Amino acid sequence: MADPKPLVLSVPHPRSIDLIFDAPSKDQLFSRYEVLETEADDLADLDDKTLGRARYILGQPPLSDELLARLGNLRCVFNVESNLIDNMPYETLFSRGVHVVTTGAVFAQPVAELGLAMALNLARGILPADQAFREGREVWGGDGNLRARTLEDSDIGIIGFGDLGRALRRVLSGFRARIRVFDPWLPPSMLRDHDVIPATLDEVLETSATIFVVAAITSENRALLDAKALSRMPDGAGLILLSRADIVDFDALMAEVRSGRITAASDVFPEEPLPKQHPVRDLDGFIRSAHRAGALDSAFRKMGEMVLEDMALLDRGLPPQRCKRAERETVNRMRSRPVAIN
Amino acid sequence: MADPKPLVLSVPHPRSIDLIFDAPSKDQLFSRYEVLETEADDLADLDDKTLGRARYILGQPPLSDELLARLGNLRCVFNVESNLIDNMPYETLFSRGVHVVTTGAVFAQPVAELGLAMALNLARGILPADQAFREGREVWGGDGNLRARTLEDSDIGIIGFGDLGRALRRVLSGFRARIRVFDPWLPPSMLRDHDVIPATLDEVLETSATIFVVAAITSENRALLDAKALSRMPDGAGLILLSRADIVDFDALMAEVRSGRITAASDVFPEEPLPKQHPVRDLDGFIRSAHRAGALDSAFRKMGEMVLEDMALLDRGLPPQRCKRAERETVNRMRSRPVAIN
Amino acid sequence: MADPKPLVLSVPHPRSIDLIFDAPSKDQLFSRYEVLETEADDLADLDDKTLGRARYILGQPPLSDELLARLGNLRCVFNVESNLIDNMPYETLFSRGVHVVTTGAVFAQPVAELGLAMALNLARGILPADQAFREGREVWGGDGNLRARTLEDSDIGIIGFGDLGRALRRVLSGFRARIRVFDPWLPPSMLRDHDVIPATLDEVLETSATIFVVAAITSENRALLDAKALSRMPDGAGLILLSRADIVDFDALMAEVRSGRITAASDVFPEEPLPKQHPVRDLDGFIRSAHRAGALDSAFRKMGEMVLEDMALLDRGLPPQRCKRAERETVNRMRSRPVAIN
Amino acid sequence: MADPKPLVLSVPHPRSIDLIFDAPSKDQLFSRYEVLETEADDLADLDDKTLGRARYILGQPPLSDELLARLGNLRCVFNVESNLIDNMPYETLFSRGVHVVTTGAVFAQPVAELGLAMALNLARGILPADQAFREGREVWGGDGNLRARTLEDSDIGIIGFGDLGRALRRVLSGFRARIRVFDPWLPPSMLRDHDVIPATLDEVLETSATIFVVAAITSENRALLDAKALSRMPDGAGLILLSRADIVDFDALMAEVRSGRITAASDVFPEEPLPKQHPVRDLDGFIRSAHRAGALDSAFRKMGEMVLEDMALLDRGLPPQRCKRAERETVNRMRSRPVAIN
């Protein structure tokens, strides 16, 4: 009798199999694996034999030590939501050599592209110029460019240099800019290998005409960019916030923009959805995006490809390479809340 | 007695010396050269000895054969307006070996940056999303991205591959896109050397999700993009017009955008300034910029640097390298009207 | 009283502290850490208090489970020899969350540079042409290039895509070649992200005019390139062997070169040092290098920098990033013998 | 009656049509054009009607003013030998607007590849190490690398930045080196655009561990690199000579190499062929190549493609773009002797 296919427990909520696998990938998934689609709450009710056979979990369901003990052949938890929350005994998983991986890298390119658009929009005043044109009060030629600047030959700062920071660096590669990066979790020589300048937070703040904030939120960096930090930014600079709102003092940011000293753009907000009366809604010098930077269908589809590629390696007894592994040292520092909607 | 300094006749209207030379460059200009600032109308009234000494003309004044005959030591006309108009006997100039050069390359980078911003804005719906957010009707997350797409892994077309097309290619270098170029004045192998795919106009139109129109207007390409050509573009594609409005049938373009089939952005318009009632003003799916793409102070300042660098070569009997030379074969095909304002 | 400095047990043989730390790095090491220099054999004789304080081991000494139990605060073993040998209970280390890292990445760039030189030397016949010139029998101009080829616009294969394969890809980035990579431990999409073409071993062998062999030797790939595999290479192709000799059937390789069908270069040999009478010594069409590809002083010095950078992260409770981590799944598959000399 | 095909006078000696056109290109040539294959000496004997119809000359035959007057429809001389010699009235040609173009750019990539190989060979001592290995006196590992260095993170100088210098810059793009360029015919900002550092000759000589000499020989740079200039090079540096031997004092270069202070490689020699007893033949620290750097069949074939591409533009009344145009200011400064053999 042929070996049974490896078993995948599928609990990808709020994602779904159809969101993250396109048709050919879904075919691959179901032809290579037995896929048991279930809900987080029902996991513990599965019989021991089934749990004991499970090789992969697709999703981020709560796992108790007791449940984990029954999952004796588990090799990897594929967290396709991609924000790590504190709902499983990571230490036990890591001791046993079970990988916990995330697929958030799929968002890096679409977020970087939106980020670059925002940076260019701020540098060139594209949104207010279009609005003025609509209203018949446009200013023609150089007179309309009094505060305009190029990214070429400019100083750019990036705060956080994970997948997203690296994608930003890549889309900026044609611009001949000086790029400074603050990332306290990375050694300086690795930053230099990416052709960026390692810098302190203050150096980034004080020298950059454009700053991208792409650090994940951790136990250490909440409100990292407070009023004092923001006040270090040069006059006329633009700040683009792409990771999580909690990393800045949002009121302080709005105050700086309202004063006209800097401009800003953000894809993330202190509350999502945001109250209808929130003052950022009609703030000039600010560009708003409703947490749309990463959530493209093409990005979700890549999650499925990543999962299949790493399952194929794990099936052969090799470590996963495509998804990002949670790490003992940092998993408990992560503070990004999971998304409620895709 | 020391040799007198070489003489420059300065008639840069509508530019001015202070617009195109920053302070250190202006110092260089005046310390290396004798600069006679005059007006186009007054040139012919200069005495023969002065005209006979003139090595350079800075500007694009009308020159008759008669006046040219008096300019016996002229080596180069630096056209700092940068659109070549038919106001001098180019054939005579070229026969004598007098260079006519333009400094329009300074605009390539700022125009390319604005062009890329427009492409990203169209691909991601950034302007209407911000407007919706202002008005409290934003759509959060993936639901707001139903028509969004990335430039990465997309098909991009560029029509015209001069300085501006090359600058676009450079700022797109981090995007891993397939870039097709239509430029009938360039051999295919040169395009391949720039890592783009040589293509016919129809191929560009039919395959590109994003098209940049950056061809100079010539005697041959007026209304090149007419209704039929535009109809070849795929549904959902975006067209970014950056060179001159005459290259498209503007009414046809507006009709395609109004239908919702494609989106567009433009920095140039059939009339500039544009009448207050022009229908493009409130056209959804269209982003407007009032001929602001290139006219940054930083760009104008580079003109002066380019002029000084090429004068230094010409002073040593070498050909100019930095500015772009007008050519016998094409100078009379150019149809871009000069700008009235900077 | 100030906290004592963290303790480093230093047993780097065959490296030495002076080999891998330049003067400023050595100063840093000794100012930040208490460094106890000892020998592998003496480790077990250290008292419990000392062992219990040790945070890092610099080197690759044998570690028993018993000794490990006494090293209660150990965070990381820095294997600066860089070939992982089976002399410590890796499973126990990983269960406890102790990192084992290697610093072999420092060799990637010098090896890649030598590899590229070898590829160009083979493609252009540089060594025999110089020898002929010495002997007065050189052939001038195109007549001397009958078998010469460029790397530009050629097909290149890379077998193994770790640090070294990636360094090769980087030094080849200016050549516009089609690069195919075989690496069964990596998912195809990661290869595509590095702008190479994922391929099977046979595809690499059959299409490449130049093949670089840079795979580490494992339990699975001994003599991967046997006579049959080598026979798939196109006539006139060149093979450059840079990792370990055991990955090819060396006799088969010599036979192919002796026949004149292919050419080859190698930095590694079945025995090192090699017997004086080994037939590769006077084999034409073969370039020999005596395991010199990586061992540059500048490379060794980078080991010290890497170690310091990762210690700094580990000191702050963060995971190491600069050095390469051994992995549970693969550590026991590694079969490279450690070097006896630097 | 259909228009007759445009007439090409073909006198490509020492090249030949079969050398520079592959089969498909040759088909194109003969299907688009009437090709009259003749000899330089026979040109003047052609009848007026034939000469008057000729649109292109393929080759570099001597042209008198008288003969030129009979070539009333001549648009372009395609010099496929590629060294401009003083055998035609260039001034008359340029006054009339007849282009004179060369196809030497085809050699840039093969020469750059050989140049890079030479630089790596010198930096790593590859040739003497192989020779020692042949003779059983190789030194293993780091002990064999006492004078070895990487190109990465090194200082590289390029003298001359035409097609060849640019090809070198391209093949060096993966090396993260500081590249200084001396080229007095180019403005500094153009060099910066190629991501190299404009420098004086002395700066290049004094700072570079590796120097590439790729300047064409002109009336001004004979023996530019004399004993004094060479003495400025740092100890241990390597010089790679790729353009013409006359640009260096060859005896002085040999003396520096003989002293062991620097190393060198050359593709060009004071006499070609070189006397059998020339002392460079057995000079250690010197790598010899018998003018083989560019003359690959694949390069010659590209000449035909370039010629066809530019003829196609010229046929449409457009200027040539692919080949390099001779210029009034510099054509008479060129002093490279033409090659006698391909």
Q: What would a concise description of this structure say?
A:
The structure is a homotetramer of 342-residue chains. Chain A has 342 residues and is of the alpha/beta class.
Summary tags:
homotetramer, 342 residues, alpha/beta, Rossmann fold, 2 domains, 7-stranded parallel sheet, 6-stranded mixed sheet, 14 helices, 13 strands, 15% strand
Structure description:
The structure is a homotetramer of 342-residue chains. Chain A is α/β, with parallel strands linked by helices. The first copy, chain A, folds into 2 domains: 7-103 and 297-331, 3-Layer(aba) Sandwich (Rossmann fold); 107-288, Rossmann fold. Helices cover 35% and strands 15% of the residues of chain A. In chain A, the strands form 2 sheets. In chain A, strands 8-7-6-9-10-11-12 form a 7-stranded parallel beta sheet, with helices on both faces. In chain A, strands 2-1-3-4-5-13 form a 6-stranded mixed beta sheet, sandwiched between helices. In chain A, helix 9 (188-193) links the parallel strand 7 and strand 8. The longest helix of chain A is centred in the last third of the chain and has 19 residues, at 297-315. The first copy, chain A, is elongated and about 75 Å long. The mean pLDDT of chain A is 96. At the C-D interface, helix 6, helix 7 and helix 13 of C face helix 6, helix 7 and helix 13 of D.
